[in-house]
Every structure is written in C-alpha cells, then in structure tokens.
Amino acid sequence: MDGFLLVFEILGTIAFAVSGAMTGLKKRMDLFGVVILGLTTAVGGGIIRDLILGLTPPTMFQNPVYALIALATAAIVFIPVVRRGLTRNARVYETCLLWMDSVGLGVFTVMGIFIARSAQQSCGAFLLIFVGVITGVGGGVVRDMMAGMTPYIFVKHIYACASVAGAALCVALWPYLGQTVSMLCGMAVTVALRVLSAHFRWNLPRAAGVGA
Fold it and tell me: Does residue 211 lie within any of the structural domains?
C-alpha cells in the first residue's frame, strides 16, 4: 500500500474511532464500552467487506495496526479533559460527531472500492459500489446496534445515499482519471452530501407510524 492509501486509511480509522467513542460517551458507557464502540465503528465495515470478497481471515486480524490505532484513539477520547471538551456543549458534540462520521464514511467508501478492485480484477460496477457502501456504513450500523439504537442510516438525514453517490462517482471516474483523483472525488462528494444533508436537514421520505 502506497503512502497516499496508508494516510487515507489511517485518517478514516481515526475519524470512525472518534465517532464510535463519542457514541459511547453519549450512552454513558465505561472505558471498555467506549473503546469497543470505537473499534467496532472503525473496523466493522472492513470486516464485512472482506467476508463478502472472500478475504479470510479479514485484514484486521492479519494486520492489527488499524485496530490498535482505533483502540488508542477511542481511549484518548475517554481521557477526562478530552471527554469534557467534547460533551460539555451539545453543539460542539454534534458538530464533531458529524464531521468525524462524515470523513470516516467518505474514506471507507472509496477504500472499499480500492480493496474490491485489488481483490477482484474483473468485478463489475455493481459489486464495486455495493462493497464501497458496505465498507462505509457497516461499522456505523454495528455501532448503533451495540449502543441500543436504531441504525442511523435508516432514520436520519442522507447517509447511505451519500455513500452510494460517492461510490458511483469514484467507480465512474476511475478508468479516466485514475485511482488517486477518483478516490478523492468520491470521498469529497460523500462528505459534502453528508454534511449538507445534516445542515439543511435533508431526509428521505419516511413511513408514517402504525395508526397514523
């Protein structure tokens, strides 16, 4: 893996680990719970991706450096001075969570496409996009379920759709602009859509409750 991809994956790992740890703080979990949520958010999507692609054991177990980075990041978030800084003000908490989650989503969406292309040279656009989206949203879904919440992607703002758009753009541009530019564009679109949807409160149509 070249330097660009290494930095890219470390950035995504840190962002998602912070996102998971902050969810643990919101749920008033202890150190173990916060660290496990950080780890799960950071590596959960990658494990699902590897299983889909037949890469066993998953990369996390072959090269634990990303798991260690996630654990260390989540532990830092739990340090009292950091914890108080993140949770003292609801606006600061929500803004930090939004950006960490958005950056993690963008990075892992395009990293999923890169891993899929590396593992399956002849795979089609549908598989690339599907694996990219699963890599991007998988960790967050597992995080929310472990925290006792309805997965965020099903109930609030544009989330998985931002990942789909970024993945589709990355796949479309790859043959013409190459790996680096297409991944940066895919990530940028995913992050932009995710942040804008939260700012302007864009949501997909929602089903009414039973009896409504």
Answer: no
Mean pLDDT by runs of 10 across the 212 residues of the chain is 81 92 90 94 92 88 90 93 83 87 93 90 87 93 88 76 94 93 95 89 68 50
Query: Is residue 208 in a domain?
Result: no
Q: Which range of residues forms the domain containing residue 119?
A: 3-200
Q: What global pTM score does this model have? A: 0.90
The answer to whether residue 207 is domain-embedded is no
Tokens of 135: 């890599």
Domain count, the chain: 1
Three-state SS string over 51-74 comes to HHHCCCCCHHHHCCHHHHHHHHHH
> What are the tokens at 105?
């989503």
**Is 95 within the bounds of a domain?**
yes
* 179 HSE (CA, 13 A, CB side): 13
